[in-house]
Design brief:
heterotrimer, A alpha+beta, B mainly alpha, C mainly alpha, A: alpha+beta, globular, C: mainly alpha, MetI-like fold, 13 helices, 0% strand
Chain lengths: 357, 297, 258
């Protein structure tokens, strides 16, 4: 079932929680709404679910306009952030609830419930009550309850945020398997980029109620379209610079300190003027530059933070402070106070128009 | 739209019940307090007059009753505080069953009728009751002490039935102080007196004020206990109001007396609140306002 | 130190109840302490007093009606309060909670006047209405407590699974606030059953509830059969109190104003 939002706006008084949002999903597609808290992603989810009445715009499911239909008639399955399992009902009864509303007899429901529990691998827990289940199990019951009604759309609200870090990794893999099996049109809301990038076909980054960029995960990460997206996804060093010219697929930029770098030019790169340069921390290496397209700068190591799987260096350079993330594999002899030369490829130098900061 | 209709459909009867059977009667009573009736025929002879208030406020007999009410309520509040604080302190350190048992005992006077409790006190304070019999058999007195129908008996009864209202808020306030705070004070060198004086007490001011306000206003407006334990000798405004309307059928005067009582308690409550705010260290307001853990569950 | 004081205070709290129970077994014709001998005859006598039986019956009927009515009214109010915007919530809350704030004499006098005016004097209906006004705030407090502990998501989960509002109410909300409802009803029953301050105004001759009956006898010679009656109510209430504490936790009823 495809889902189309056109110019959806929701305001509370003067505050526009969701501002003119449009996108559409094809059947079976999974989209993540990603953004910081307060960006309007939850309001948008509630609007699709029918819990928040939209101020203007339309929401279409297939060909039907569902903007004004009450939630209980929308046939949308929802996995709530805190799962919202019915505490007074056991697992089986929780799953039966939606089927009962659809007039399915208890006998006919047995098979559907069994299948849903099989998908989430919880058959042995049929007779347990929610409080007798672990967080991960509750999460899976919530998924099962949402899919047992065979909804046309599935909504997931911060599906993994209530789990602790280790379990979250496991459940992410699990959830990916479940979603792949279901191939149901899905929208999920999250503030966790790893969740968004790994679980969905496309990601929409929201900021202040509006979509900043909507694209496939890799495209979003490698080719951010706005300062916000470049800054929000991953961790970047940011520099203000001046674009001085285009040379094929590369752009020449001049830094205030007199240095010159080369960056990736795209169709939307301007011919000149002030630009913002973003370089991701994990794309910077240490050592002499070894390619013609490379940028480099030397500096003094101010801090080394050891994090086990990675090591972060804060380096003072002429272009300002640069954070470098080194993987555990990169052997590093240098310590605090040493002079190092940093390098990264022009491909990894993202240029976005505009001044700022 | 549908939701609005639903809300109105619920709101209408709820509001109607409270407006019709609560707000309207109180409003009518307010207006009645400005009437004057012929005490023999009960006919209203004057529609708007301050006569009832004038009558109360200019007669030394009634003024003495006002003072009586004030000091009995104040005395009850003070005694309740002195007696209730240690109980609250002790309770706040307990968990589980032992706390639950104390809680049930502390709350029990609220759930047993005042009429019944009065009866118990009569047996305790009677001339051949518990206290007098004990004293007599101990040889301490020959003739029974006149304990009943004294202000002391009234205060005793009031303290007994209003104690829960002082214990609970104080315990609540004390419970909201995390145990680490006391441990920190002790680790910094506070002995148990200083711990109490500089940490525990300031943090429970809010509970003390809340409790005192409730106990004061409830004691001032109680009439069942003063009528029985105070008899004709110890009268309070509430018992006068009760007798005026039920025995003398002088509703306007009873209305005026009970409204004066309301005014008096309002002033006293405001004063208590003001004192409480003065005493409470401002930085601690938030700390003390934190809800207590759900200990009763 | 605080422990010793606490035990003394607890003894003081229990004193009148214990004295009543002990004295009710006295063989003496007049109540005195210590009781003499041991007999159940006053209980037997009390059971044969028509005025006692009548007032007990009346009290139980009134308390039951009050419990049912104030549970319905209080629950409706709690739902309403929850669904209103803060601007409307505050005045409604103030209206419904104010009977707890106003002195009972004020409520009593205003009601006796009002019911006289509309000709509803000496009617059990008047007593029921009066009790409902003063017990409903407690029900509202308890049910609102239960409701606010209920995550909003739960209702949303219900409706997203296809349940219309009324089915969400019956299948999702009510089962989860059961404790508040039962506790509220039970508490309203006790409050009505033990009420004397308001009943003393409304329960006129011929319409005597049990506490009013006992109150009326308080200025006369203490008769042992009345002590037996008192001791029965003490034991009964104790049982209900323990039940109440087990179901909802008594503290929730009294702590936190409004």
């Amino acid at each position: 079932m495809h889902l189309t939002l056109s110019s959806v706006t929701k305001h509370y008084g003067d505050v526009r929680a969701v501002n003119d949002v449009s996108f559409s999903l094809t059947s079976g597609e999974r989209l993540s709404l990603l953004g910081p808290s307060g960006c309007g992603k939850t309001t948008l989810l509630n609007a699709i679910a029918g819990f928040a009445e939209i101020s203007s715009g339309t929401i279409r499911m297939g060909d039907a306009d569902i903007s004004r239909i009450p939630p209980f008639k929308r046939n949308i399955g929802i996995v709530f952030q805190n799962y919202a399992l019915f505490p007074h009902l056991d697992v089986e009864e929780n799953l039966y609830f939606g089927l009962k509303m659809r007039g399915v007899s208890r006998r006919d429901a047995r098979q559907a419930i069994g299948e849903a529990l099989e998908i989430v691998r919880l058959e042995p827990f049929r007779a347990r009550y929610p409080h007798q289940l672990s967080g991960g199990q509750q999460q899976r019951v919530a998924v099962a309850r949402a899919i047992v009604i065979r909804p046309q759309i599935l909504l997931l609200d911060e599906p993994l945020s209530n789990l602790d870090a280790k379990l979250r990794h496991e459940m992410r893999t699990d959830l990916l398997r479940i979603l792949d099996d279901l191939s149901i049109t899905t929208i999920m809301v999250t503030h966790d980029q790893a969740e968004a990038l790994s679980l969905s076909h496309r990601v929409a980054v929201l900021n202040q109620g509006a979509i900043e960029q909507i694209d496939e995960p890799e495209a979003l990460y490698e080719r951010p379209a706005t300062h916000f997206v470049a800054g929000f996804l991953g961790e970047s060093n940011r520099f203000a610079a001046n674009l001085t010219g285009i040379d094929g697929s590369f752009a020449k930029i001049a830094l205030p300190n007199g240095g010159e770098w080369r960056g990736r030019a795209t169709g939307s790169t301007p011919d000149g003027g002030p630009v913002q340069v973003f370089v991701r921390t994990e794309r910077i290496g240490i050592g002499p530059s070894d390619g013609a397209g490379d940028n480099g700068i030397s500096g003094t190591v101010r801090t080394v933070i050891y994090l086990g799987e990675e090591r972060r260096l804060v380096v003072d350079t002429a272009a300002g402070e640069i954070v470098v993330k080194l993987s555990a594999r990169d052997r590093l002899g240098s310590g605090v106070g040493d002079t190092v030369s940093l390098c990264w490829s022009a491909q990894d130098t993202i240029i976005l128009p505009g001044g700022g900061r | 739209m549908n939701k609005i209709v639903q809300k109105v459909a619920v709101a209408a009867p709820v509001c109607a019940v409270f407006l019709l059977f609560f707000v309207l009667p109180v409003a009518l009573m307010l207006s009645a307090s400005f009437e004057r009736i012929d005490t023999l025929t009960l006919e209203v002879v004057e529609r708007f007059t301050f006569a009832q208030y004038f009558k109360f406020l200019t007669d030394s007999f009634y003024l003495r009753i006002l003072l009586n009410t004030l000091w009995i309520s104040a005395g009850t509040t003070l005694v309740s505080l002195l007696v209730g604080y240690p109980v609250a302190l002790h309770m706040s350190r307990l968990e589980g069953l032992s706390r639950q048992i104390i809680l049930i005992i502390v709350l029990s006077p609220l759930l047993i009728s005042h009429a019944v409790l009065n009866f118990g006190w009569l047996i305790v304070l009677n001339s051949n009751g518990l206290v007098n019999s004990t004293l007599r058999s101990a040889g301490l007195i020959q003739t029974p002490l006149p304990l009943l129908h004294t202000a002391l008996a009234v205060i005793l009864g009031l303290v007994h039935s209003h104690l829960p209202f002082i214990v609970l808020p104080i315990e609540n306030a004390l419970r909201s102080v995390r145990p680490e705070v006391s441990r920190a004070a002790v680790s910094l060198g506070a002995n148990s007196f200083r711990l109490f004086r500089y940490v525990t007490l300031p943090l429970s001011i809010k509970g003390i004020v809340t409790g005192s306000v409730i106990v004061f206003s409830l004691s001032a407006s109680s009439f069942v206990i003063p009528v029985v334990l105070g008899g004709v000798r110890v009268r309070t405004m509430a018992s006068v109001a009760f007798e005026e309307v039920m025995l003398n059928l002088n509703a306007p005067f009873a209305a005026a007396v009970s409204l004066l009582l309301l005014a008096m308690t309002t002033i006293a409550v405001a004063a208590l609140g003001w004192i409480g705010r003065k005493l409470q260290p401002p930085a601690l307001v938030q700390q003390a306002a934190k809800p207590a853990s759900e200990g009763a569950a | 130190m605080t422990r010793a004081i606490t035990y003394l205070v607890l003894a003081f709290i229990l004193l009148p109840g214990v004295v009543l129970i002990l004295t009710s077994f006295t063989e003496a014709r007049f109540v005195s302490f210590p009781p003499e001998g041991f007999t159940f005859k006053w209980y037997v006598l009390a059971a044969q007093k028509p005025e006692f039986i009548a007032s007990l019956k009346l009290s139980v009927i009134i308390a039951s009606v009050v419990a049912a009515a104030s549970t319905v009214l209080g629950t409706a109010t709690s739902f309403l309060l929850r669904s209103l915007s803060p601007g409307l919530q505050a005045p409604l809350q103030a209206l419904v909670m104010s009977p707890l704030v106003l002195p009972t004499v004020v409520i009593g006098i205003s009601m006796i006047q009002f019911f006289t005016l509309i000709g509803l004097v000496a009617s059990p209906v008047a007593v029921v209405i009066g009790h409902v006004i003063v017990t409903t705030p407690y029900v509202v407090r308890l049910v609102s407590d239960s409701l606010s502990a209920l995550p909003r998501n739960l209702e949303w989960a219900g409706s997203s699974l296809g349940a219309p509002d009324w089915r969400v109410l019956v299948l999702v909300i009510l089962p989860n606030i059961k404790v508040g409802l039962i506790g509220g009803g039970l508490f309203a029953f006790i409050m009505s059953f033990e009420n004397v301050t308001l009943s003393a105004f409304l329960a006129t001759p011929g319409l005597t509830t049990l506490p009013v009956l006992i109150f009326g006898y308080s200025d006369q010679a203490l008769e042992p059969w009345l002590v037996a009656v008192c001791s029965v109510t003490v034991l009964l209430t104790t049982a209900l109190v323990v039940l109440l504490e087990r179901t909802i936790g008594l503290q929730r009823v009294f702590s936190a104003k409004g």
